[in-house]
Amino acid sequence: MNRRMFFYLFILLISGILAGCTNKNFTIEGVKLKYTNIEVRDGTAGTMVSLDKEQSEGLYNYIKKIEFKKDRTSEKSTGWRYALDFMADGKVIDTIMLRDESTISYRDNFYKTDVSMDLDYIASLCKYVFNAVVIDNDNGLLVRPDVDSNEFKSSDKISVGTNNTIIYDENKKKVDLDEVQIGDSIKITYNGIIMESYPAQIAAEYINILESNLLISGYITIIDEIYKEDSGLNNDIGMIALNLTEIENLSEEDKEILLMKLYNTYGLEVKESTYEQLLKEGLITEKGFYFPSGILITISNSEYNESKKTLNYDIKKWRSGLGAVGYKGKAEFNGEKWIISKENMWMS
Questions:
Q1: Which of 40, 149, 203, 279 is most buried, by CB atoms within 10 Å?
Q2: Which of 76, 97, 125 lies at the terminal end of a domain, its last residue?
């Protein structure tokens, strides 16, 4: 074999080796990334979500064994569906761009796979979830986000669009929007986009009703019960005033929800006030004998036993010196509704 022939054979051998290396299958697992968590950026919505440890491991385990074959350079290309940023100590140490179901971009090269990647699974990781309390459902759904949520940092009130929302009750059964009531604790899933208005606005994909506020519903029940007592006192009223100064088992937010619920129930102005405040505002006549535009309901000595689901209280309804009713009450929740018993009833 002459020297020239040997040279050609050597070139062919080296070319074959290089070609084999170039076309060798590639896996993310082979890179052996030492990451702490993964952040997923949505190239369509322009949002980003930081996955927790469990989610990050789940995503990594899904993609790590998918084999990719090196394709052409991606150095000057733009556009992608999802970017997976591998993080360590708050810094990006590596990034994989998902172009479509069969193509990724990694370190300035495209890689192809024969496996169809589940982009719906990736999309599900890009959803934002937070807990909130419903504060209005009259003109759309208005919620107050949990104070520890990122959404609360944007706004203390959020208007929730529900045109295409799927809603589940506490038993994971699909329900209509009218099942979502003021005071309900709910979990909202959305795409991370918040319109910076006031209230802020989002479009919900899912709403899960976590629980109704049982104590608020108890107060609604006992107020409604005395409202119906001596109904003649309610003639021509336009206002219900509530004296809640002695109630310590309701937060200020709970009281706000209570007032809204009562407004929706009766269609009357509902305000938190005392006899002295009403007198000072001129809503009670000068001599303090008559409340012409409303009734004053006062609740005192309220004790709630959460484990037994009982509420003990004193309550009275006042319209005038000669128009009032009251009693000592006990409300007990039987699993479906509050049952009220009364004693020491009086009227004037």
A1: 40
A2: 125
